[in-house]
Amino acid sequence: MRTMDDYEMDPAEQEFWLAQVARIVDELDPVPAGLVERAQFAIDLEDIDAEVELEAARWADQRPLAGVRGGAPGTITFFVGDLTVMVNVTRTGEKQRIDGWLVPAGEHGVEVRVADQGSKTTTADEGGRFVLTEIPRGTTQILVRMNGGKPRTVVTPTVEL
Amino acid sequence: MGAVTELHATRTNPPWEGLEGTERHAACVIAAREGHRGALDVLVAELTPLVWHIARGAGLDRSAAEDVAQTVWLALLRHVDSIAEPRAVVGWLITTTRREAKRTRQRSATQVELLPEVAEHVPSTEPMPEAEALRTERDRQLWSAFHRLDQRCQELLRLTVLAGRAEYKVVAEVLRMPHGSIGPTRGRCLTALRSLYDNGDGGR
């Protein structure tokens, strides 16, 4: 049985509803400001090497950072495969301090990149702990370079810290 | 295309310059393989809207969709040497974004199941738009109706809008959308949108 809802739309009405969808695409749900630049920063990695496996980590869903995009200090977690990295961020004046913990532990290289403000590297201790101080605030990406076995580099999407 | 021959004569121009659509994307992939800095940036700049609207059409909130978009571009960086057909990079992006969005959604679903006390506090399943975007009652109704469509329709309609634009003609090709025609499936999605909109405002 046909109801009113089933009748075919004429082209003009299709145009009208497509224009409504266009309004969603362009105005109600636009690409976030700066996403293109953040993605370009995220893939602008110096030492990408065919010999080193590159893996994109994921931020854990429940981010205790109060509105992580706003960037209040706190603990965030990212993971890929069997690797989990917990990162605690504390403000130190204009800069911040990053305390991290890799699980499973390993003496892996850790790099924190901040857009337009360079990067800092360190190596985790045998317990998987690492500390980086005087990190500027901004669009931040974390890399873990895992040695031992097949070399691989884990990279995160950017986060505003 | 005469422009291609001219381009080879001018070595300072990037290899994708003057090209459009599939040819342009393929030239960017090949240039990226050869270590041309900036080739992937062109793809990111031009195709992020496609990736974004697929991730949002899959029901991710804005923050999760942003992470998925970046993850997809990191995946392209990783796989740029192994994509079998540079001309098919748009199809690769569509597939990769859908898969990544699905993975993200499944993971949040699992977490909500594990933590019922969290689920209680999830305010709405409608992924919210920009905070101040919904200024009028009409926009609120439109948004609400759109997000009651099934996800297939949400993605299809978002991509229909993109594919109708000159710079995204390649999307129409990849999805085999006949030019200038809405087609039965999209027609059904538009009819469903109208019906949800009309029924959503308590007897207009």
From TrEMBL, chain A:
It comes from the Bacteria. It comes from Actinokineospora terrae. This is Carboxypeptidase regulatory-like domain-containing protein.
From TrEMBL, chain B:
InterPro entries: RNA_pol_sigma-70-like (IPR039425), RNA_pol_sigma-70_dom (IPR014284), RNA_pol_sigma70_r2 (IPR007627), RNA_pol_sigma_r2 (IPR013325), RNA_pol_sigma_r3/r4-like (IPR013324), WH-like_DNA-bd_sf (IPR036388). The keyword Transcription regulation applies. GO terms for biological process: DNA-templated transcription initiation. Keywords: DNA-binding, Sigma factor, Transcription, Transcription regulation. Residues 43-107 form the RNA polymerase sigma-70 region domain. One of its GO terms (molecular function) is sigma factor activity. Gene3D superfamilies: 1.10.1740.10, Winged helix-like DNA-binding domain superfamily/Winged helix DNA-binding domain. Pfam families: Sigma70_r2. Belongs to the sigma-70 factor family. ECF subfamily. PANTHER family: RNA POLYMERASE ECF-TYPE SIGMA FACTO, RNA POLYMERASE SIGMA FACTOR HI_1459-RELATED. This is RNA polymerase sigma factor (Sigma-70 family). It comes from Actinokineospora cianjurensis.
